[in-house]
């Protein structure tokens, strides 16, 4: 009986492996937003495949409101590895990045490491960060092209 109580307590008390899993967080502060309307959409990628143009290839996505030209996204339960994050300011809340006829974004965009592309989006390698567990805080500045 005593052993059963200890097992139950160890599964819910801080410092146990299940509690530590909840602490594996990548938190992203996003600044440089030109307006407080719409939302920010953040996508977390674990490989270069589809980064950053195919959000369906992301392993996680987060949407957050904008306030005072700032927003933030949080990804929880993340395993150690190499990741890249793409962000866009969805000003009209249509859940997609609006572009002009040339494919140039009409809404603000950003990536981890504030990586920039040359005549296109940044590549995964330039935007990638190594995550080893715990809490990782990142800062991304939105750019309007």
Integer tally of domains: 1
Name given to the CATH architecture: Sandwich
Alpha plus pi helix count: 3
Question: Which class do the helix and strand fractions yield?
Answer: alpha+beta
Layout of SSEs?
Blueprint: H1 2-12, H2 17-22, E1 25-31, E2 39-45, E3 60-65, E4 70-76, E5 81-90, E6 109-111, H3 124-127, E7 129-131, E8 135-141
Parallel strand pairs: 1-8
Antiparallel strand pairs: 1-4, 2-3, 2-5, 5-6, 5-7
Write a concise keyword list for the protein shown above.
145 residues; alpha+beta; Immunoglobulin-like; 5-stranded antiparallel β-sheet; 3-stranded mixed β-sheet; 8 strands
Outline the structure in words:
This protein has 145 residues and is an alpha+beta fold. The protein has a single domain (24-141), classed as Immunoglobulin-like. It is built from three helices and eight strands. Strands 2, 3, 5, 6 and 7 form a five-stranded antiparallel β-sheet that branches. Strands 4-1-8 form a three-stranded mixed β-sheet, with no helix packed on it. The chain is globular, with a radius of gyration of 18 Å. The relative contact order is 0.24.
Brief sketch in words of this structure:
About 15% of the residues lie in helices and about 35% in strands. It has helices at about 1-10, 15-20, 125; strands at about 25-30, 40-45, 60-65, 70-75, 80-90, 110, 130, 135-140. The chain is globular, with a radius of gyration of 18 Å.
């Amino acid at each position: 009986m005593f052993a059963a109580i200890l097992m139950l307590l160890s599964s819910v008390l801080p410092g146990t492996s299940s509690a530590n899993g909840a602490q594996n967080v990548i938190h992203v502060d996003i600044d440089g937003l030109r307006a407080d309307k719409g939302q920010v959409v953040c996508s977390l990628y674990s490989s270069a495949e589809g980064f950053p143009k195919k959000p369906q290839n992301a392993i996680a996505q987060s949407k957050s409101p904008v306030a005072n030209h700032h927003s933030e996204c949080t990804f929880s339960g993340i395993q150690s590895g190499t990741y890249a994050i793409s962000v866009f300011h969805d000003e009209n809340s249509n859940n997609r990045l609006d572009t002009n006829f040339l494919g140039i974004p009409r809404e603000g965009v950003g990536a981890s490491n504030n990586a920039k592309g040359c005549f296109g989006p940044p590549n995964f390698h330039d935007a990638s960060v190594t995550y080893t567990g715990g809490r990782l805080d990142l800062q991304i500045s939105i750019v309007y092209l």
